[in-house]
Amino acid sequence: MRVGNRLIAIFSILIFLSMNLPLETIQPTSAESSHENPFMAVENIYPADGRNHHPLNPSYNAVHTDLMRTSFHGGEYSDDWIARENASSPREISNILCASNETILDEHGLSDYNWIWGQFITHDIDFTLTQNGRVSYPETIDIPIPPGDEWLDPFSVGSLEIPMHRSIFNTSTSNETVPREFPNSITGWMDGSMVYGSSFKDSNWLRTFSKGHLKVTDTDQGEFLPLAEDDDNEAPAVSFVGFSASERFVAGDPRANEHAGLIAMHVIFLREHNRLAEMIYSANESLNDEQIYQLARKINTAQIQQITYNEYLPSLGIYLPQYEGFNDTIDPRISNEFATLAFRMGHSQITEQTLRLDEFYEEHWAGHRNLSEGFWNPTEMINSGGIGPTLRGAAWATQAANDIYTVHDLRNSMFGEPGFGGMDMCAIDMQRGRDHGLPDYNSIRESLGFEKISDWAEISDDAEVIERMNIAYPDIDNADPIMGMYAERHLDGSSLGESMHALITDQYLRLRDADPLYFENDPEIAPHAQYVYQSSLSEIILRNSEINLLQCDIMFAVKDTNDMECFSNDYSKYSDLTNPHNLSTQEQDLEILSVNLNDKTEDSGLNFIEVEDQLHWSAYGPSIATADCNNDGYEDIWIGNSYDQEGSESPDNVPIDFYLMVNDGDGTFTDFTASSGLDTSVKTYLGASWVDYDNDGDLDIYLSNAGMHNNLQTMYPNAMYQNDGNCRFVDVTQSTGLGNLGHSSTSSWADYDHDGDLDLMSHNSGPIDNENSTLRAETDILYKNQLSETGTAIFEDYTLESGGVYGTIYIPENDEIGIGDVLSYTSAAAANPSAQMSVKFPTLSDQKNLEKNGTGVSWAGLFIDLGDDGWEDIFIGTDFGISPIYKNMGDGTFMSYTEESNLMIHGTAMGLDAGDVDGDGDIDICQSNFGPNYLFKQTSEMRFEESSYSSGLNFGTSSKSVTWDCNFVDIDLDGDLDLWFGSGSITPYTTFSYNSIYLNDGNGNFGEAIFTSEILHPIGKTMGSSWADFDLDGDLDLILAESNLGLKYYENDAAQKQETKWLAIDVEADIDQSGVFVTAVNAKVDIEFSNSKVVRQIVKIGSGFSGSKDSTIHLGVPTGETVESITITWNDGSSKVIESPTLNQYLVVQNVMDYSQSANVQEVENDEKLSQSSKILPGAILAFIVIFVILATFYTRRSN
């Protein structure tokens, strides 16, 4: 807008102010012109659930009342109660009809307020629920995506579908003669239920019960919707909770947070209720809370009705007959046709952008928003100016025409990026009509009183529309009614075709005339009638926001402030909502990868795996486990099986065998599987861990068997193989007691009881049926190693004795695997499925606190000292819910510590890793998810803060990937831990995902690395990855195991760059004082640089996804800095400090362990707790305890 116009607008406002011509609103007075105070208690109110409102039929428009059918063709179903089941896929029709390269704007200049109000008011009267998460076995009507679809199948997978569940139906219907009928889950009266709720429970939760007020959240941008706590089970439902980092901003309708315009409207009428309550209280302080609340609600609801009938409908060219009062013979119920057709009309009227304008009606400092960026994101609105910018933008913007076209974001990326869960609203609207049994377009026309047509030219003058309709529907009698209605030429003076016009007219006329409390029929509204009639939508917005200038007829767009005639001079409450121009929205930091990762696969011997079938989503594996199994100094690798675990996508798919590949030390690997003694007849090993379970100095291997998931009765035992030191193995599963008959994903190991041997945490995922969206939880198992007690490595189930570290709510009665019920979950295609895809456990309905124990779908584990107290804690990465933490109490038991750790966060955990990313000397955690990944930074002892957004991780590739693996590694050898995410796919509803690298700036802030490489190939489907120095040159190379491309080997050249300095440390210990040194599991390595930064890493077995990572500590040195010291702390509490270590070589640091010291300290502490007069151990004994031997030897590994 020109500066001159701005000045004129501001000057005009000042003139109005100086003339003392305020905005016309009725302020509370002492009723000088009346003998009676008009603000009195009311008696006639809408029932909370809508029941008993109609005098003749109590069920009319009550909650759970079936939608009625106005069509005399109602309930026509072709097969399985789905209309037009054999018609073309709605996505195929959408591609023909709904796609458009340009948006045609409404011919009458309707503003965005038109479609926003249309959605707001229909949310007051209709909500048919879908079956997902609400019935045990939800039915689906997934929409097939045509192979090679430009947007939804960019890689020509050919089997993709848009996920869609059927609507809940009245089970007393749906038989051979009675079609399905669908209940309305909210009240069907225009009673303001989207503000106040459709049940007593919800209505009461929304109230403060003080002076008639509703709850709010106070923000810097004014009052906002109330925010429910995560553990509040009584709060009203919120649809798709998790799209905004699981924050639940609550309104009377679950869909309030769907998009910015709808959020703003909810906030306005929440504020308006509280403003009315204050006005009423000021006028009559004798009224109690209930009386104030009900009167404020009555007036607010009357305003909503007045806006609908006197502003919204006329803007569409709908003029109802003059109101003649209540008519009890009319059926007011919401019709199935309205709920499934007219309800969805606004989807055609939405444009690509949500405009956000400042007080001068110019682009707001936060910028405009693409439609796809604004779904389910109320927090973003609060952080970028509140509701004002969106409301100004809606006044300026012209909505799209009501036609066959749908904008790109709604058609290809609704709730997700194109090809990554993006859905098609146009196709979904057609499919929902079929689901509800709507008859064809011609039959609907006939029911509305119009003649059937035989040629699309009869209802349209647009040649392109006619041509497209002929292609999509050569048989007019089989056309989806919503598309036929969209294709109709508009009536004179209306933005609607004749069928849509008639359908909307019918519904709102019946709803008005059959409502006893319609505001023009309600005698208790009469004292406030003038006020209600004056309360246009623009005036309600002006008195409840910082906006001071709007057009009076807000349903029509105005682009010049000179033509905006309604204004407000009341700045008392919202005038301080200034724009923080000095702030800017966070943008993604992009980093150039300074090292080369050169593809050496062809010459490495790792290109032998041939993948016959490229599976889109269903394959598990292969994973990778890395270790030196023959003690030659070079890292060898175990490659897991890869197979279609459900047998659904590729029934004839032959599983890929697992392999043991020995590193030859010259850049090549040799297949050693046949000579290894490992039994390759098992084809379902997903995970593996290299571990010296028997303390003999070589690495044995434990294999986790995930099994097939299409047979719940079959169990799949894990296997333990003993190494002879030369990568030759003997099966010792039976003698060690480590069969574990579950569906196992991985394992983690630690000496949790400090008795000198390694104990096992075996993680079970349970069977998951992604095609049908069901799962069955299984408990994890903690095995205690009896080696130190008996001299023989036999493992006993100590899960119960240790305090119940089951990783789920299901608790077995004895020492056996606990098996849960078969449960359903929602297949997410969302901006944040990490938080959305949570399973609803029936047993949690009255035991919400148990949710912190996990879901029993475990993919990863950390068995390390998280709190720096010397004892190994357990963090289990569980899918579909909260990942639990168990704190080691130092006495052989654990306690649940999830809540205390501040990690009551829903996610879809696949992989975990731990390391110090911000150089503060404590351990942070990465969690890979389906969708945005999590970064938990430790803020105090064993307390974490989810910091992914503030650290730069919720941007770019990792924010929209199905991520399996996360790994902290110093890829560029600059002295900090970078982040690697290995990604793939796992549901039929998402396409392939890219791997990604995020580089650390040294302070725990990350930027996505930009580089071109086959590493990022999305078709690969990476489920296994390993960063290790395979060529012993000082930097970390990468081996990928991909379901569709086999193995890939990339050699890092970071160590070859001039001035590069690095450290590599193998920490070992004689943990049972036998003279044999083994990997010192859980040893902490603190590397201090000359800039005072201390980076901590931990030696661990079990991290990432399924496989096992390299146990060597690797870290580069920042440019211009030196290493001051290395401090190594073993888990018996002993430590060794190495000052100014030699760089660019491998160090091996060894120590003889003595657990007696830490044990006796614990014993003294316990004695002190028992009695303050207890004597401390005699000095001679204490002196003996503190004597221990540290044997540190340094030698150089083979190095270039």
What is this entry, summarized?
The chain has 1200 residues and is α+β, with helices and mostly antiparallel strands. It is built from 25 helices and 54 strands.
What's the arrangement of secondary structure elements?
Layout: H1 3-18, H2 90-97, H3 112-125, E1 143-144, E2 161-162, H4 193-196, H5 200-206, E3 217-219, E4 222-224, E5 227-228, E6 248-249, H6 260-283, H7 289-315, H8 336-340, E7 353-354, E8 369-370, H9 378-383, H10 388-396, H11 408-412, H12 425-435, H13 441-447, H14 463-472, H15 481-487, H16 498-513, H17 529-534, H18 537-542, E9 549-550, E10 566-567, E11 590-592, E12 597-599, H19 601-604, E13 619-620, E14 624-627, E15 636-639, E16 643-644, E17 659-663, E18 669-671, H20 673-676, E19 685-691, E20 700-705, E21 719-723, E22 729-731, H21 733-736, E23 744-750, E24 759-764, E25 768-769, E26 774-778, E27 781-785, H22 787-790, E28 795-797, E29 819-824, H23 833-836, E30 858-864, E31 873-878, E32 881-882, E33 885-888, E34 894-896, E35 906-907, E36 911-915, E37 924-928, E38 934-940, E39 943-946, E40 962-969, E41 978-984, E42 996-1000, E43 1006-1010, E44 1022-1028, E45 1037-1042, E46 1046-1052, E47 1062-1070, E48 1078-1079, E49 1084-1089, E50 1094-1098, E51 1113-1116, E52 1123-1129, E53 1135-1139, E54 1146-1152, H24 1156-1170, H25 1179-1185
Parallel strand pairs: 11-43, 47-54
Antiparallel strand pairs: 1-2, 3-4, 5-6, 7-8, 9-10, 12-46, 13-16, 14-15, 15-17, 17-18, 19-20, 20-21, 21-22, 23-24, 24-27, 25-26, 26-29, 27-28, 30-31, 31-33, 32-35, 33-34, 36-37, 37-38, 38-39, 40-41, 41-42, 42-43, 44-45, 45-46, 47-48, 47-51, 49-50, 49-52, 52-53
